[in-house]
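re: ur question from yesterday

yeah so i grabbed the chain u mentioned. its 290 aa long if i counted rite. heres the sequnce exactly as i have it in my notes:
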Amino acid sequence: MPRNVKCGLIQCHNPMNDEKKSVAEIQAAAFEHHLPFIHEAGKKGVQILCLQEIFNGPYFCPSQDSRWYAAAETIPGPTTNALAELAKKYQMVIIVPVYEKVQEGVLYNSAAVIDADGTYLGKYRKKHIPHTNGFWEKFFFKPGDEHYPVFQTRYAKIGVYICYDRHFPEGARILGLNGAEIVFNPSATVAGLSQYLWKLEQPAHAVANGYFMGCINRVGTEAPWNIGRFYGSSYFVNPRGEIINCASEDKDELIVSDLDLDMIQTVRNTWQFFRDRRPETYERMTDIGE
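ran it thru and got these structure tokens back, copy pasting raw so excuse formatting
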């Protein structure tokens, strides 16, 4: 029996760029801005939906302003609990990227996974934390733990990789070895240095590991930092590396694609990359350095 899964990605601008507003007000505006798109996804029968990196607010990492620590929340917490109700209403898996607070001073860039019945399945914490040219993420985020979890949802086995993680093929491979059929990469990336990699690295991950990827980027510019234009271009890519249903560079939108999971077996039967791996020769990859 064919395994077709309808998946969606939401890319949005930050609707409130006003330093005079509180962090809570800015977050509430971003959350409310996403709701019509989430409802649209549910009404269109989307089975797995992913939101963008730290979706409920701006990408505040161009600053090193401790006021944004107030944006962090627990997982599960108020945002995941609210979206769990919508997941249950629409029988829709939702990946919810938020700023996670474990305790004071222990903060992560994370994504919660909520199953189609509203059950919280777990979370992924961003592993690779950049700290350069306006991306001062080490000021805000502790690096994630060693785990690359794969979540058995009602519709598919899914993994999460967050933004800068996409530059590192090692974790993408582990997600495949752990059984991921679809890997989602919620991001916040601006035009310039790495834009040419946006449609290069993730199709390469999909091909090397024989799975689908859903790649999300926000849109617009965000005051007061104005580090550049978030160029959207969210897309799905299949295990052959073919990009399907790419979004615009400058518009808030939901994109929806039907993913034929049977393609995974077809591709892996052709390209036996997992069979032909030689992990016993890769020790140098885990060397600390000389």
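noticed a couple things. Helices lie at 23-43, 78-90, 169-177, 201-209, 262-270. also Residues 50 and 95 are 5 Å apart (CA to CA).
anyway ttyl
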